[in-house]
Amino acid sequence: MPFCSQCGNQVTAADQFCGRCGAAQPGATAPPPPPPRGAPYPQPGSGRDPLDSIDSRTASILCYIPGLGWIMAIIVLAADRFRNDRAVRFHGFQALYLFVAWLIEQQVIAPLLRDSQLYPVHNILQLVLLGASILMMVKAAHQEQYSLPLVGDLARKSMSEH
């Protein structure tokens, strides 16, 4: 392990400056400079973007995971990497609206139907929403932009606004 050339403090080979005295260290390897503005995205595995290893197809599929896909949808919609990828953004918005439909079913419809004879409708709606999520994962895997009724229209409108 190398030592600081100024004060003798222990430093690593990658340290550019001493942690104790702040002196510049000879032979320290400088990190690569940031890419110029407007440059293409770094190649996968460069370690700069955590979404590097996720391609657009995988990102689209992950948006539709029942219960957890909304997290990936938000990440995809907020990521610079997918800002210009219309297909991924469509799937992100549609998955968010599908999750909102699931929340409405769970938090509004199910409690309203709990004490009535129509409660089996709750189970049917859950199956429909689960089926829609699975269908959309398959469509995203085939790189198709299938538009679900209602939520697909909302997703297209959201895309046109951004």
Question: Could you please describe the fold and organization of this structure?
Answer:
The protein is built from five helices and no strands. Helix 2 (69-78) packs antiparallel against helix 3 (86-113). The mean pLDDT is 84. The protein has two domains: 1-30, no CATH class; 56-161, no CATH class. It is mainly α and 162 residues long. It is elongated, with a radius of gyration of 24 Å. Helices cover 48% and strands 0% of the residues.
The amount of beta strand, in percent, is under 5%
Give me the count of strands: 0
- Structural class computed from helices and strand pairing: mainly alpha
Task: State the shape.
Answer: elongated
Number of domains: 2
Number of helices: 5
Terminus-to-terminus distance:
52 Å
Sheet of most strands: none
Proportion of helical residues: 40-55%
Low-confidence stretches: none
What's the SSE blueprint?
Elements: H1 56-62, H2 69-78, H3 86-113, H4 120-141, H5 151-161
What are the key terms here?
5 helices, mainly alpha, 162 residues, 0% strand
